[in-house]
Amino acid sequence: MHMTKRELLADGILLATALIWGSAFAIVKNTLDSFSPAAIITMRYTIATTLTALFFRKHLRGLTPADIMRGALVGAMLFAAYIVQTIGLQHTTAGKNAFLTGIYVLLVPFCCCILFHQKLRSANFIAAGMMLAGIGLLSLDGEGGGLNIGDGLTLISGGLFAGHIIAVERCQKKTDTYALIVLQFAFCAVFALSYYLLFERGLPLSFTPGSIGGLLYLAVFSTTIAMSMQNIGQSMAPASHASILLSLESVFGVIFSCIILGEVVTAKMALGFVIIFAAVLISELTPKESK
User: Fold this and answer.
1) pTM value?
2) Domain-embedded: residue 291
3) DSSP 3-state helix, strand, coil percentages of the chain (rounded to 5)?
4) Among the four residues 114, 123, 142, 284, which has the most C-beta atoms within 10 Å?
């Protein structure tokens, strides 16, 4: 079965998104030395909202209350996923945080099956089982011999990211893709600021050239560009397919964590790498059932 130009373009966009996201884990880990979790999310999404509102301002005309509600829903899912993931990153390594977040690739097809009666292929089950095995190898490689609190929070965030991917797919059916990008960013920033004022007020904020540079990288590349690409790519591909490609951020995350932070990949982690990558290939290359 030959892929169409549209499918190839969607895959290229989603793969580039995963690459940029993968680089962000190490950047966030470093930035946590200067800012609290909600402060990082507030600042990066405020900047991203400003930039995308300028780029996509024509798409914001004629928004309805229903559009704004859908933006609030997707923004709430996005904030919940990021705050749990970022707090988890304070208690585990950037590499493990990247890999364990990839649990969403297991959850998206099954959630779509349960909620929207989308059919599952045998490749979904094989890839899901392999992903679980790869994640298991990775998580059981910690110094304590098992999951720590940071790993547990990261797994929860993976479930929330699955919810966000599904919410994006459903809301794009009724709200303009570009308007939804701006709305979700804006609501994510509002929710993060509220969390900061309620739970993190008084925590130190250290504005140094390094922390400002990291924050701008997260805001411009990881958020404005990559998350816009995620939404555009998802408008051309089903959520279950998109989640497989996006999950490659975990592979890129470990690579960048080794390069930037000097984290070490053990033999067991490397085996988890190979199994997860094979799962992605199985899911990608297995022909889809013809209708």
Assistant:
1) 0.87
2) no
3) 80, 0, 20
4) 123
* Chain centre to alpha carbon of residue 103: 11
Nearest in space to 169 (alpha carbons), one of 64, 77, 61 = 77
Domain assignment present for residue 148? The answer is: yes
Q: What does the block give as tokens for 157?
A: 């965030």
List pLDDT tens digits, range 193-247.
999 999 999 898 999 999 999 999 999 999 999 999 999 999 998 887 788 788 8
Which residue, 19, 143, 44, is CA-closest to 93?
A: 143
- Taking the C-alpha atoms of residue 36 and residue 4, their distance in angstroms, rounded to an integer, is 44
Is 290 inside a domain boundary? Answer: no
Q: Do residues 169 and 238 lie in contact, with contact meaning Cβ atoms separated by under 8 Å?
A: yes
Residue tagged 């408008």 (tokens)? 235
Number of folded domains in the chain? 1
CA-CA distance, 242 to 173, in Å (whole number)?
16
Domain membership of residue 19 (yes or no) is yes
Q: Which range marks the domain in which residue 198 is found?
A: 5-285
| Residue environment code for 75-103, b if the CB has 16+ CB neighbours within 10 A, otherwise e | bbbbbbbbbbbbbbbeebbbbbbbbbbbb
Structure tokens at 209: 């050239």
